[in-house]
Amino acid sequence: MSRAVPRPRAASVACLAIPSLAFQCELVERPGLAGMPAVLSDEAHARVLDVTPEARIHGVRVGMTLRDAVGLCPMLSVVEPRPALVARFARDLVEAMCAVSPLVEEAGQGIVFADLRGTEGLYPRLGDLKRAVFGGVPPQLCPQLGVADARFTALMAAHRAEPNAVVHVPLTEAATFLATELVSRLPLEVDAVERLHLLGIERCGAFAALPRAAIEAQFGLEGGVAWLAARGEDPRPVRPQPWERERVEEHVQAEPPLVSRESVLHALEQMLGRALRQPRARRRFVRLLRLRAETERGALWEREQVLRDPLGDRGRMWTVLRTLVEYAEFPGPFSLVTLELAGLTEESGRQHSLFMEQTRRREQLDEMVRHLKVRFGESPLARVVEVEPWHRLPERRRALLEYDP
Description:
There is one protein chain. The chain is an alpha+beta fold. It is built from 14 helices and 14 strands. It folds into four domains: 173 residues, MutS, DNA mismatch repair protein, domain I; 52 residues, DNA polymerase, domain 1; 96 residues, 2-Layer Sandwich (Dna Ligase, domain 1); 45 residues, no CATH class. Helices cover 37% and strands 22% of the residues. The chain has a five-stranded mixed sheet with strand order 5-6-1-7-8. Strands 9-12-10-11 form a four-stranded antiparallel sheet, sandwiched between helices. The protein has a three-stranded mixed sheet with strand order 3-2-4. The protein is extended, with a radius of gyration of 29 Å.
């Protein structure tokens, strides 16, 4: 009888990955494409972004034009991207990870990290963690989960995991596990990766074998971080958005779709009133306003405004929202509009200008000089101005002029 595998105590980072999230979302929405040759096109409907294994058999490859792809496979199904659908599934992935940890970071669409420190008692076995995460993800998306002690190792583990499976990499095996990965996966700029290729360094194992001092001398601090990541010691923590958990949302499903700007503003005003009446938002202040709208064809329109001072007044919030809408161009009629008030706080602080003290001192100086000019008949202060900065004699380079505010 097999026993459950205990969760390793060293594992502190989990990574949930959905390779090619845009394509997987379309396959979930259109199950008839399963087992058929199909490709995902770009927004210009010109080139191939992703392909199914059945289309790859006919010679269809990522990057070729749709005309060439259809020529190779006349029965090819072409799927257009729908950013609104992808964004909706991406939010579901974040919520699935939030179910296991309060510290969650969305590193990109289809890549979500979670800090697992402190959750050992809730999920003592890897199977418990897997069920908790995959319970909020449609299995048709083929989610992959990686668990490790460092961020980069967890990401690579997720990429190597089978669909609907989890891969754990112990700390002692991380360097060996990462040795065969391409250096292009490391957190390095494109030009740095190209320089490594010119030096004949293609894999993380060869990169990690170099002296750290030499790497940092060539690539700076970024190179040092990549060197640690290649050894399984990635120092980068999970960085969650501080306001993502404290928020309220309101939605309007428009039928027929909202065509005019006035109708969008009217729906938005109603949503703002409902959002502020929610129990979580009462007597609270808002740090972030976010608008999200979807068209009938799946196009996505988003705007957000981080408020310099948290607002609790409906009128001032409405002024900000109205400005976001009045000067925007819409991709089409909206069938779904979402308003999000995030970063809810109990207090309202005021952020002063960094240069306010300097400005105040300058005004005091000018006032003092004006009093001295009245008393002595002329300004007792002078200011230094450049006259001939290129001259070889220092006294010819600058001159003193009367300071007259």
